[in-house]
Amino acid sequence: MACSILLSGCASIFEGTTQQISVNTTPAGARCTFWKNGGLIADIPSTPGAVTIRKSKDDLFIVCDKPGYVSASFVNRSGLAMATFANILTAGLAWAVDSSRGADNKYQGEVNLALVPAATPAPVEQPRAAPAPTAPEPVPQPRAGTPAPAQVPVAAPAPQQIECTASDGSRIRVAGSGCPAGWAVAR
Predict the structure, then answer these.
(1) What's the Rg (C-alpha) of the chain?
(2) Residues 9, 101: contact at Cβ < 8 Å?
(3) Which domain holds residue 186?
(4) What distance in Å separates the CA atoms of residue 129 and residue 152, rounded to the nearest whole number?
(5) 85 lies in the same domain as 124
(6) What DSSP string describes 120-137?
(7) Where are the alpha helices (DSSP H) in the chain?
(8) What is the pTM of this model?
(9) In 12-48, which positions are buried (b, 16+ CB within 10 angstroms) versus exposed (e)?
(10) What is the pLDDT of residues 126-165, one digit of tens each?
(11) CA–CA separation, 81 vs 60, rounded Å?
């Protein structure tokens, strides 16, 4: 038994060389990629989900993306597995085996990330001036026996126009109190 522990390592026996990592995001439905040493090693197409990765001494980088949200990332640091401490009993001989296999390392098994909505510039509303009160126009009264004059329609006031600018410096004028999405009120 002692020989098999020395040859296979304590952590290799008790904890293995792979580990499952689950990822939950708020809101759900994000795509999460797993990176180690600059290379893509795993992918969760839609959270919540889990992947099984090979353990190593290298940190694991988790990046989650969802349309309409800012990307969120998490560094899952490689730490020592609890079974590694049992290697002390073998004078470090089993540790050499575990270390070469990555079995003496462990990552955080459950990762929770909150995604922040992407900032979209809200239209800046210009303060509206209150219309000045006007006195009603006198309506002429017809004299007895004369036909009443035809009513002339009053023209509707022209809508308020504002000037909007884009990030590339272009400008437009629009009717109303706000600029279209992606545009800001010109100063």
Answers:
(1) 35
(2) yes
(3) 120-128+158-187
(4) 28
(5) no
(6) -PPPPPPPPPPPPP-PPP
(7) 2-8, 10-14, 93-101
(8) 0.49
(9) bbebbbebebebbbeeeebbbbbbbeeeebbebeebe
(10) 566 666 667 667 666 666 666 655 665 566 566 677 887 7
(11) 15
